[in-house]
Design a protein that fits this description.
The chain contains seven helices and 26 strands. With 403 residues, it is an alpha/beta fold. The structure holds ligand LQZAQKY5 and molybdate ion (MOO).
Length: 403
């Protein structure tokens, strides 16, 4: 039977996944959150014509011919405007950021002047508007400058502040319950028994959840028994998780009972098994309002499934409009053989050729248990199903490692 393609599987995971409700957060807590509404400016910036330099505000007509002496009639530091009107052959001492006094249209920088008492001698002429930032140069009241669905980086937060917003509407963080399964698993840092494996995947998955903008809920480690799994699934439902991620027990052995027990809880199965390596036994379905991703236990398989399916799902629940696929193109740094029906994600090193082009060289060993190779890798080379053999120098698709 033909297995589901990666694209089709992703489409099914994202089907019907729409943005969660919004909440308000203070600017200082808004970093990396996703905006829930378009944001219009409450202010025009700059609010008035402003000096861009320290110097003298003058009338351009007075300084056409230089040198010329002007009478200094006042001073305008930032935050304190000069309230009078500046007349013929007059100047006001001005500083960067101060409003341009009435009657002036130009700034002469102080390096181009000599001052003596209340007289300034202007040595260089200056055109109209020189060193003046016009009112509204940056933006105007009512301009929509930040869009719903964008992730708030430091620059977006600075702009929101400049627009005079102290609080922003953002999407609630998707809650993602993460459950490791397996009798062999023990937490890191303990003294492992003779048959123990250290549980690693849950830590990686929780990190992926956080990076994607969700809140991980740690459900710990379930034993390979119906009872233990059942208790954990009940806990997931009670925790009001939007997504449940299980790790391990997804394959065909008689201890791989995750799917069975999920079904006993009412799982509506979306799919099981996809044409992908690593990650073939991926399970997807719904348990009430909760989406369930049953990931294979091999550490690299679960991280790749997390990156390819869980991260886009979290982004969809955040209403992200700017999702980055992370995909680009490179040239192969070594030969690769013909591919079978599974789309391969080969861990690879990136380098540059002499012309500066990107080169991706897959590691020789690609076993899905090898986490150290995942950390050594800079990218995945994507080999589509049934791709013919390819040689060093041939173009290839790559997914840059971003976790
Ligand atoms: N007869 C077949 N056997 C297998 C098939 C198949 O199609 N036919 N598929 C293989 C593939 S592909 C994968 S991937 C694995 C996935 O199996 P499971 O999801 O059932 O995973 P487990 O058996 O529970 O564990 C596999 C491996 O990973 C270790 N593991 C599990 N959880 C964790 C964790 N949280 N942290 C660290 N390591 C973990 C576990 O100890 C095992 O070594 O099935 C193949 N078999
Ligand atoms: O698909 Mo499994 O994830 O190859 O090892």
């Amino acid at each position: 039977m033909a297995m589901l393609s990666v694209e089709e599987a992703l489409a099914r995971v994202l089907d019907g996944a729409t943005a969660l409700p919004a909440e308000s957060v203070a600017l200082k807590d808004a970093l990396d959150r996703t905006l829930a509404d378009d944001i219009a400016s409450r202010r025009t910036q700059p609010p008035w014509d402003t000096s861009a330099m320290d110097g003298y505000a003058v009338r351009a007509g007075d300084v056409e011919t230089v040198p010329v002496e002007l009478r200094v009639v006042g001073s305008a530091p930032a935050g304190h405007s000069f309230n009078g009107r500046v007349g013929l052959n007059e100047a006001v001492r001005i500083f960067t950021g101060a409003p341009l006094p009435d009657g002036t249209d130009t700034v002469v920088i102080q390096e181009d002047t000599e001052r003596e008492g209340d007289v300034v001698r202007v040595l260089e002429s200056s055109g109209v508007g020189r060193y003046v930032r016009k009112r509204g140069l940056d933006f105007r009241r009512g301009d929509v400058l930040l869009n719903a669905g964008s992730r708030l980086g430091p620059r977006h937060i600075a702009l929101a502040a400049a627009m005079n917003h102290a609080v922003l509407p953002v999407r609630c963080r998707p809650r993602v319950a993460v459950l490791a399964t397996g009798d062999e698993l023990v937490p890191p840092g303990k003294d492992p028994g003779p048959d123990s494996i250290i549980a690693s995947n849950g830590y990686g998955m929780a990190g992926l959840v956080r990076r994607a903008g969700g809140t991980p809920i740690d459900l710990g480690i379930a034993r390979d028994t119906r009872n233990s799994l059942s208790t954990a699934f009940t806990e997931a439902v009670e925790s009001r998780a939007d997504v449940l991620v299980t790790l391990g027990g997804a394959s065909v052995g008689e201890h791989d009972i995750v799917q069975d027990v999920l079904q006993a809880h009412g799982l509506e199965l979306g799919f099981w098994k996809i044409a992908m390596r690593p990650g073939k036994p991926l399970i997807f379905g719904r348990l009430g309002n909760m989406r369930v991703l049953g990931m294979p236990g091999n550490p690299v398989s679960s991280m790749v499934c997390g990156r390819l399916f869980m991260v886009p799902l979290i982004h969809a629940l955040l209403g992200r409009r700017d999702p980055q696929t992370g995909e680009t193109v490179a040239r192969l740094g070594g030969d690769v053989g013909a591919n079978d029906q599974r789309q391969d994600y080969l861990r690879a090193r990136l380098s540059r050729d002499e012309a500066g082009g990107l080169v991706a060289t897959p590691f020789a060993r690609q076993d899905s248990s090898m986490l150290a190779t995942l950390v050594r890798a800079d990218a995945f080379v994507i080999r589509p199903p049934h791709a013919p053999p390819a040689q060093a120098g041939d173009p290839c698709r790559v997914l840059i490692m971003d976790f």
